[in-house]
Amino acid sequence: MQMTEIFPWNDNFATGIELIDKQHRKLVDLLNVFTSHLAIESDDATINQTFTDLAEYAEYHFRTEEALWHKHLAGDEWEAAHQKTHHDFIETISQLRAKDNCYSPEKLISETLSFLTNWLAFHILESDMCMAKLVRARQSGKSLNEAKNQAREEMNGSAKVILSAILVMYDTLSRRTIQMVSEIARRQRAESKLLLVKDAFDNTIDAICITNSNALIVDANLSFLECAGLGLAELIGKELHTVKPGFEYKGQSAQIWKSVHDHGSWGGEFKTRTLRGEVESEWLRVSSIKNDNGEVINYVLLFSNVSHLLDRQKSLERIAAHDALTGLPNRLLLTDRLEQGIARAQRNREHLALCFLDLDGFKQVNDQLGHAAGDSLLIELAGRLKKLVRTSDTIARIGGDEFVIIISDLKEPKNATILLDRILSCVAEPIHLQNKTVQVTATIGVALYPSDAENADDLMKLADQTMYQCKRTGKARYCFISPVSDLKSNS
């Protein structure tokens, strides 16, 4: 029997702990063997044996995991909770076995597959991933509480949203794939030619097409016809790339067909053009169908529109990199921009100024008018500052009333003073809040690359220190570490 990859392995499942990842891969392989036997309707003895192999290996894997977690979490509530997930898995497996005599084969297959794929993806991506992060933190010398906090932070809210999307996607793809493989297996045993069950085929919202071994379309469902804007008679015999232009992208197409040739299937994000000429992303699953001689006779392609998932992921990435109040880049994105700016300045033999800005008088606004007024002030100032800086510069809010500005592409260090003077004037302009006019000023500490420091961390520390020293000697001004008149050009 040729194993069908019902549950495709993904490198994102790797926890970073070699032994655990090796056993997870083995579990995935056993799951694919079991579901492949279900799909082709193997005899009961074979299905029961593969089910037993999967359950026994899962118990062995659980013992391995628990021994590893115990070294770092002995007696902790996290250890107990993780053990409970293992116990629940074994209990559910036993219940599924008990239903063998009272459920129809189709219902048992559906329920078993849904449970196994969802449980395995959830357990690896969330539970085991979190525990692995904790173990690695402990191995690096962190205390248990520190390791748990770090693991929680890394398993953040956006990761949970993406996990949920992945679970839905895997459940859908696994069901669709096993349905198609099951039907093809029945047809091969019956008459060795392709026949389609139109009810299941046409009613799916996913677009499905079947080609011959030369990638010429031989059939398609209604969803695929709607995407192509053609009738079935017009579509049959067309080359696949003429209907799905994404197959004309050489790099993408070569990767897909190489994987199908080497492994029998491919799954992943697929970029193509719509009838309107717009580029869109789909989740594509390609499987090869072989005859009894091992020759490829057909390809089955299933296209799932996951644009909303990809858009959501991009939205989450933006949220993770920007300040929620002002919309400015946060510390995470600032660090990335600073490293890019340093690399560009090094290539072009130019200077870069890192400026820490702290507001003078902000606390009084908060105390007298309330935090809502303080937030309004920060939003107003963020808008003003964004208008001042160039597209090559970056302004970020890193917390409270502290902002950081990266001034790039400086031929001479003194050129930074032009923008700094404008910033001081801009911040000092009156602001109307709650029928009152308030005024704050800014104190700025400036560190220069490469004269003051040559890496991002040192520049951040020096600019921060310079800003506080500047505040102690007088506010509403900016201070360089060294007089800019003493600095020479890099050119």
Characteristic key phrases:
disordered C terminus, Beta-Lactamase, 17 helices, alpha+beta, Four Helix Bundle (Hemerythrin (Met), subunit A), 491 residues, single chain, 3 domains
Concise structural overview:
The protein is 57% helix and 17% strand.
Mean pLDDT: 82
Count of discrete structural domains: 3
The SSE order reads HHHHHHHEEHHHHEEEHHEHHEEHEEEHE
CATH fold name of the largest domain = Alpha-Beta Plaits
For the largest sheet, list the strands in their spatial order: 2-1-5-4-3
Tell me the β content: 15-25%
Give the distance, in angstroms, between the N- and C-terminal Cα atoms.
68 Å
Oligomer classification: single chain
CATH superfamily heading of the largest domain: Reverse transcriptase/Diguanylate cyclase domain
Q: Kindly provide the radius of gyration, computed on alpha-carbon positions and rounded to a whole number of angstroms.
A: 30 Å
Return the CATH architecture of the largest domain: 2-Layer Sandwich
Low-confidence stretches: 192-196, 487-491
Number of strands: 12
Find the structural class using helix and strand composition.
alpha+beta
Instruction: Give the overall shape.
Output: globular
Query: Largest sheet at a glance?
Result: 5 strands, antiparallel
Question: How much helical structure, as a percent, in the residues?
Answer: 55-70%
At the first level of CATH, the class of the largest domain is Alpha Beta
State the helix count: 17
